[in-house]
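We were asked to recover a plausible sequence for a given structure. The inputs and outputs are reproduced exactly as logged, with field labels preserved.

PROBLEM: sequence recovery
POSITIONS: 331
GIVEN STRUCTURE:
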């Protein structure tokens, strides 16, 4: 069994591959795989011609982030001890991959680790997706060291201390391959967004840890699939967040959280309409409709244990919007 596979999911991402794959090939120590979600933009021809050393797994249709990784990684099952899952729009740096794997190997109870994730647009800023380590508040809203909601901090070394986290970013993280398969991988029903946080919840319910290390750094473009301001992304985030909580928490805990989130997101939805952003306002409503439409798919987490979270904020929505706390250090 080999040590690690670096696995990139691709769907019509030829431009991203052309821009970011060179750094991955140059600075990586392990096998590189591309799982292709039935691209139609000549991505495969590009890989075959320019990067014959990259292994490719071709899927018959676009299964999304969750389903694409699940089906592709099933082909690699039993061949590698670890996976590093990497977005196609990420630039890496020297020793980025070996640093992550050695970090896992040295920490026995550690299931997954993410690097410092900075912006590929502004190298001095943290990236939206993961930044300096991800946390959840009591309503399961994600936030990061270096990013709360849409407020992003400059990297001044303030989050260089390694730490345990509530979730690792799907933009780039390393994890034990055996555990990924034992837990059934990502939830296919999510299609895209929140699936890595759902997986992290299930990992932590096993009594295992997740971590962030600044000793490895990558640069993420972000928004290559769906822009952060996309109504579709907002809809999926709301739908999948509710689904994640429903399937991972005791039922009584879920409905109390549902009521609180519903009130806050109703306020947010009304705010979008008042700002003339009707598409975003509708997306909030559609997220709730989508959850109820697919709720029967999931087994309620009746017997699941609620995991204590590691971050400083119990209500990051209130801290940010009502108390004016815009930085992680202010929480």
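RECOVERED SEQUENCE:
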């Amino acid at each position: 069994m080999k040590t690690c596979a670096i696995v990139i999911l691709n769907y019509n991402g030829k431009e991203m591959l052309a821009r970011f794959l060179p750094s991955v090939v140059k600075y990586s120590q392990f096998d590189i795989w591309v799982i292709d979600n039935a691209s139609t933009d000549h991505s495969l021809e590009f890989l075959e011609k320019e990067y014959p050393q990259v292994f490719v797994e071709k899927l018959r249709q676009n299964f999304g982030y969750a389903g694409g990784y699940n089906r592709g990684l099933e082909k690699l099952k039993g061949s590698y001890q670890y996976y590093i899952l990497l977005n196609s729009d990420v630039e890496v740096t020297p020793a980025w991959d070996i640093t992550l794997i050695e970090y896992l190997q040295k920490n026995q109870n550690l299931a997954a680790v993410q690097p410092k994730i900075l912006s590929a647009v502004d190298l001095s800023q943290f990236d939206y997706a993961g930044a300096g380590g991800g946390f959840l508040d009591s309503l399961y809203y994600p936030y990061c060291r270096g990013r709360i909601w849409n407020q992003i901090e400059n990297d001044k070394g303030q989050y260089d201390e390694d730490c345990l986290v509530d979730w690792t970013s799907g933009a780039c993280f390393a994890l034990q391959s055996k555990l990924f398969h034992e837990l059934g991988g990502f939830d296919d029903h999510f299609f895209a967004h929140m699936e890595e946080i759902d997986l992290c919840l299930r990992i932590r319910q096993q009594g295992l840890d997740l971590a962030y290390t600044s000793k490895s750094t990558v640069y993420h473009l972000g928004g290559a699939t769906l822009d952060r301001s996309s109504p579709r992304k907002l809809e999926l985030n709301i739908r999948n967040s509710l689904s994640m909580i429903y399937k991972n928490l005791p039922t009584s805990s879920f409905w109390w959280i549902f009521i609180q989130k519903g009130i806050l997101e109703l306020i947010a939805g009304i705010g979008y309409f008042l700002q003339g952003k009707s598409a975003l306002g509708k997306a909030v409503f559609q997220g709730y409709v989508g959850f109820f439409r697919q709720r029967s798919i999931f087994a309620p987490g009746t017997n699941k244990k609620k995991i204590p979270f590691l971050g400083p904020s119990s209500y990051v929505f209130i801290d940010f919007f009502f108390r004016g706390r815009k930085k992680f250090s202010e929480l």
